[in-house]
Design a protein that fits this description.
alpha+beta, Thiol Ester Dehydrase, Chain A, five-stranded antiparallel sheet, 3 helices, globular
Length: 120
Amino acid sequence: MKQTVTLHTIVEKAHLASTMKSGSLDVLATPQMIAWMEQAACMCLELEEGQTSVGIAMNVTHDAPSPLGAEITIQATVTEQKGRIIHYEVKAYQGDTCIGKGEHTRCIVNSEKFLAKVYK
């Protein structure tokens, strides 16, 4: 498992609150910031064949707006692992400004068993 993963991305039209319908302004949508945080958290994991992880908790603040074209850096750091449960600290930056931060929790599951329960 990687302790920390850093992800770099650019705010595109598809990532805007006005496009995602999470608001009316042309700024980075909170759901997109959260999705990038989850993506970075997933990238920390080195799972066995047949395993995946599912998000089970997310508690973040979105503290500053980012415009179309902004360069965003997302960081996920493993803070604790208890069996199949992994806790992370997640942060989003535009330059040196922290635009969002919080905690995320994922659970490692067997993909086949998980989907069997979902679609029974």
